[in-house]
């Protein structure tokens, strides 16, 4: 649902960015003091570049963040949901989605790939922040070498987890190409509750059997929720 258009005559006039002293403008403040000195609203305003009719870009930015509550919710919002906010539109929404994705990829690049993954807690610590974001189920595999060091974090499918979307052929294709020793399956529950479903368990058992045939061991399947995770290996489900 779009933001309700408020009566512009009922609110005090908005101070446009061009009317602000230069030391208060987001771009000039970033240039002078660095990005870390700016608020979330100012950083988003720089991405938006322009405001709406009769409303400054900083005001639009504040309203956007108020609409979604926090950056995590904004990052997980769909392109359509962001574009639907008054003063945003599709072009600005695309810019926001691109910036959010870059931030998540930066977080992944900071992962020390030489650090071995030995427990589900390691998976949560390294990949939980990204896996909590999507508003759709996302099934990924962590490809590991003989020392349990990460070779690659690979997305297999996006959508409701079932045997048609998560076929062993798709799951192990990249593992075979990279010559990995073992894999850990990871997927999120957008509901926030990581309790495994019947489909989760069935798909995982199929993958374990396929891995045994291909000599690529499935070490675990970790389901990511909002504040916790479930390890199928630790709970005895595989």
Commentary on this structure:
The chain contains 9 helices and 5 strands, in the order αααααααββαβαββ. About 4% of the residues have low confidence. It starts with 25 loop residues before the first helix and ends in a 7-residue tail after the last strand. 42% of the residues lie in helices and 14% in strands. The protein has a 5-stranded mixed beta sheet, sandwiched between helices. Helix 2 crosses helix 3. It is α+β, with helices and mostly antiparallel strands and 238 residues long. The protein has 2 domains: 100 residues, Orthogonal Bundle (DNA polymerase, domain 1), CATH 1.10.150; 120 residues, Cytidine Deaminase, domain 2.
Concise summary:
By secondary structure, the protein is α+β, with helices and mostly antiparallel strands. Helices cover about 40% and strands about 15% of the residues. A hairpin with a 4-residue loop joins strand 4 (about 215-225) and strand 5 (about 230).
């Amino acid at each position: 649902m779009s933001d309700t258009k408020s009566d512009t005559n009922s609110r005090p006039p908005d101070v446009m960015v061009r009317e602000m002293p230069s030391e208060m403008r987001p771009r000039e403040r970033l240039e002078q003091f660095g990005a870390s000195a700016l608020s979330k609203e100012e950083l988003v305003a720089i991405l938006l570049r322009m405001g709406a009719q009769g409303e400054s870009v900083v005001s639009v930015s504040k309203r956007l963040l108020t609409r979604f509550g926090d950056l995590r919710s904004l990052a997980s919002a769909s392109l359509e949901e962001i574009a639907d906010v008054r003063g945003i539109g599709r072009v600005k929404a695309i810019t926001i989605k691109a910036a959010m994705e870059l931030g998540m990829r930066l977080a992944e690049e900071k992962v020390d790939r030489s650090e071995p993954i030995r427990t589900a807690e390691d998976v949560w610590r390294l990949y939980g922040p990204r896996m909590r974001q999507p508003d759709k189920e996302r099934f990924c595999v962590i490809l590991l070498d003989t020392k349990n060091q990460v070779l690659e974090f690979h997305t297999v499918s996006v959508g409701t987890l079932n045997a048609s979307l998560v076929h062993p052929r798709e799951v192990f294709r990249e593992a075979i190409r990279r010559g990995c020793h073992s894999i850990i399956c990871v997927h999120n529950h957008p509901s926030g509750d990581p309790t495994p479903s019947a489909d989760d368990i069935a798909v995982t058992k199929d993958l374990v059997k396929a891995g045994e045939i291909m000599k690529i061991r499935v070490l675990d399947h970790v389901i990511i929720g909002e504040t916790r995770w479930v390890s199928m290996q630790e709970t005895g489900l595989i």
